[in-house]
Amino acid sequence: FLGLAYLMIERGRLNLKGSAWRTLRLGVLGILLICVAVNLLGRHIRGRLDLTPAKTYTLSSTTRAVLGNLDDVVTIKFFASQELPPQVDLVKRDVEDLLADYAAAGGDNLQLLRFSPSAADPEAQAEAERMSVPAIQFNVLGQEEFQVRQGYLGISIQYADQTSNVPFVRQTDDLEFRLTSAVVAMSDPTRATVGFLTGHGEASVLGEASGFAETLEQNFQVINVDITTDGARVPDSVSVLIIQGPQTPLAEAEGDALRAFLAGGGNMLVMVQPLSIDETQAFPNPQPHPVLDGLLADYGVAVPEGMVIDHRSSGRVTLTSSSGAGYVVPYPLWPIVVPASSHSIVDGLSGVLLPWSSPLDLSAADTSTVTPLLATTEFGQHLTGPHPLNPQFDWNSIAADLRPQPMAAAVLPRLSAEAGGEAGERTGGRLVLVGDSDFASNRFLGGESGNIVFLTNAVDWLAQDESLIQIRAKLRSAPPLLYSSASMRDVAKYGNLIGVPLLFVLIGAWRLARRRRLQTSKYRSRGKTGEQQPGTTG
């Protein structure tokens, strides 16, 4: 289109019988033919230039390895209607590209079948129903009416005698992870066991931890673990034990059971804070955990009293004005923390929301075994005294000692030489500590935060099965936008609002002034002898 437009413009300026016009026509025609040839060949020659930092649109090496090591053929059935709303049709295009990559990477180990269920194809409809892929209603806004239509956009994965379904693909951000993890779960019958500690008011797998537990059940067996009875111990079958926000202190005998579990090679994810948050109360209440504190002290880590705020990177809450209208304000007590290292648990994460959280004290930690995972930005602050929970509090009035605050850490077992074993080997289990438990509840797992990604990555690392972490880190969430000061934020805001339109106005004014100057100037051409010849006024 641009070539033809340029050709029409030059047609009025050039001599149609001159060589310049013939050269221009041949050049534009050649470019058009090249574009047509590239488009036709592009349908048959696969290739993609992925310039995203995390190679978001390229199959991970983990997926290629899983597909290349299958013992049986995986059949992927893709059900997609021909006519879908524009916003859903974009998702369909991304799904088709991803499945084509799967088919290319899987080779003979993968069979990709496409179906277009409709009234005109009842066999495809019957197959979709048999694979538990239902029809979904879409709202379509036409030129003169608002319509409700039905359509399909689902995937069924079959391996041996097992089937896993994605009834409706709402987004493709995590689709590679979902497909690959389903293949891994079906092809590997052995599944590690993850236990949730109970008996102290912790989040329940049937309550606030249900979303976390359901995600883990895709690749692990999830059970409850109760060690409150005398002589109880963590079952040997448990690979990872999760302690999510106990409300009452553990007994000394329970602490001994946890130490024995770690010493025997068990692994723990500990999410605890020394404060109890009740949003109906003005201030948080102390909630000590002396037994857990003693256990953590064995590894040189601690969760001190107080809460953390971040003056630049935080979540937002919706408040209601006196008129009943809602408005959104930043809430520094909900810091959005960022990776503090290149550890595999946080590699590729953009941010994790930790509401009402406490910092970690790593001053006594052994740097060879303890790695910080998450930290606030440089505008983080540790509040040691009682401070209100009110989102409308003037947080800038108490700003002091701003610096990155460590919020999560990974702990490796000590070298066995320290315990009298052979040098170079580590004995005991791994541990991940987070100074917050609310972030793992159903309320904070949704949205664009990386909470669920961090949690599942942590469990995979603890279970020493890190194959899926690489895929999970490719979630297409935007990184947090941080500003060094309020003035820089205003510059960015008003620069986009006023600066960009003003730039075009200035360019237009410059071109207009240039045209007027050319109109009043005298045009002179050079003769054959190089002498200036008088021209005419333009």
Largest sheet: 10 strands, mixed
How many domains make up the coordinates? 4
What is the terminal-to-terminal distance?
A: 32 Å
How large is the radius of gyration?
Answer: 31 Å
CATH class of the largest domain: Alpha Beta
Number of helices: 12
* Secondary structure tally: strands: 22
Question: Fraction of residues in helices?
Answer: 25-40%
Detail the poorly predicted runs.
528-533
The 3D shape can be described as: globular
Strand-pairing-aware structural class: alpha+beta
Outline the structure in words:
A hairpin with a 2-residue loop joins strand 5 and strand 6 (162-166). The protein is globular and about 100 Å long. The protein has helices spanning 2-11, 19-42, 61-68, 86-106, 122-130, 175-187, 210-216, 252-263, 290-297, 451-462, 469-472, 486-520, and strands spanning 74-80, 110-115, 136-141, 146-151, 153-159, 162-166, 193-198, 221-226, 238-244, 267-271, 275-276, 285-286, 307-310, 314-320, 326-339, 352-353, 370-375, 380-383, 406-411, 431-434, 525-526, 532-533. Strands 7, 8, 9, 10, 14, 15, 16, 17, 19 and 20 form a 10-stranded mixed beta sheet that branches. The protein has 538 residues and is an alpha+beta fold.
